[in-house]
Amino acid sequence: xxxxxxxxxxxxxxxxxxxxxxxxxxxxxxxxxxxxxxxxxxxxxxxxxxxxxxxxxxxxxxxxxxxxxxxxxxxxxxxxxxxxxxxxxxxxxxxxxxxxxxxxxxxxxxxxxxxxxxxxxxxxxxxxxxxxxxxxxxxxxxxxxxxxxxxxxxxxxxxxxxxxxxxxxxxxxxxxxxxxxxxxxxxxxxxxxxxxxxxxxxxxxxxxxxxxxxxxxxxxxxxxxxxxxxxxxxxxxxxxxxxxxxxxxxxxxxxxxxxxxxxxxxxxxxxxxxxxxxxxxxxxxxxxxxxxxxxxxxxxxxxxxxxxxxxxxxxxxxxxxxxxxxxxxxxxxxxxxxxxxxxxxxxxxxxxxxxxxxxxxxxxxxxxxxxxxxxxxxxxxxxxxxxxxxxxxxxxxxxxxxxxxxxxxxxxxxxxxxxxxxx
Length: 423
Ligand SMILES: [Zn+2]
Known about the structure:
- The structure is a single chain.
- This protein folds into two domains: 2-85, 2-Layer Sandwich (Alpha-Beta Plaits), CATH 3.30.70; 98-399, Zn peptidases (Aminopeptidase), CATH 3.40.630.10.
- It has helices at 2-13, 36-44, 63-72, 98-111, 160-177, 181-189, 200-207, 262-273, 305-322, 339-345, 371-390; strands at 26-32, 48-53, 56-62, 75-81, 116-123, 129-135, 147-151, 191-195, 278-286, 290-293, 325-328, 350-356.
- By secondary structure, the chain is an alpha/beta fold.
- Helix 5 (160-177) crosses helix 6 (181-189).
- The strands form two sheets. Strands 5-6-8-7-9-12-10-11 form an eight-stranded mixed sheet, with helices on both faces. A four-stranded antiparallel sheet has the order 2-3-1-4, with helices on both faces.
- The site of zinc ion has 7 residues, from loops.
- Zinc ion binds at residues 154-155, 158, 232, 285, 421, 423.
């Protein structure tokens, strides 16, 4: 824990060595924001809000965004942030780089040929395979078993969001093999799809040279020569309708058009190809310990009361296991073009975003160290199994009182909204 605190402290005291272009320098800002509406205005400038606390937010952004924010809001503090100086001191060898992840998935398939199938849904900008793992006693492509899809690694620096779906796949396979009757039954009745890393190029860039770079986007070259589109602002439902930037240099750049990126197109094509089977989707991100559900692009709740209640009920139920805070995504601030607004809005899938551990920047933020991997898995395996179990018909949760779910009012736009990573 001390190391984590020191690592976080290093972030705040990092001084620039001056090797970035003026326009590309990154600033860490602490900004006064009284409510969700002010937070949304701040998100609209293009900064990525990382932490929401009472009456203020912490965010990363460039100089231009900082200047714009200063005109409208009180900036309590801002630091120029040297990305290159962030060198996490402990060994994080337990994390899987792309090659190691690929090998782990190949091994999983080789050891479980009747249960696990490795394939690809498409290629990244830099031509890496975007892996898909299918886990089921029925691996046929034309299976009509109910299905759920788990995804990780939309954002490059969110490395634990890749480890969680990998460990989920490994857990399902090993428990099946060990004769766990619950898992055996589940995998005879479902197909489970796992896409552990949607943005392999970004993740590889983030760890290149053995130093974390706080990279978020993919690695496409934009028209102005800058790099990267925010894949979780690039989905095509109410795309570019707030909380996403039109500036290619912004960390929340939504891209030149919806689904402009090969990574989001690959997800779209895969999900569309399985839409007769899929009922449920979970996209893992870090950090903040939240369970988020649509909408993100509007403060309004989902209009369909049953669908709203299913999301709320399932989020509340899962929060009993991982102790994350369940809430509508836009309770934090408006953000458009994310995976779950699209998967629910376009296809009606019951859709969640988990912001995994840690809780905040002071516990390590994006880089909490490898000891956090097992903690995240232990907290989140039951919610994952629950989603698989409910995937035949998530609406059945409305008829069950066995989960002891109460419709807790999470106080939309609450000032005490604890934290957020920018989805
Ligand atoms: Zn994220």
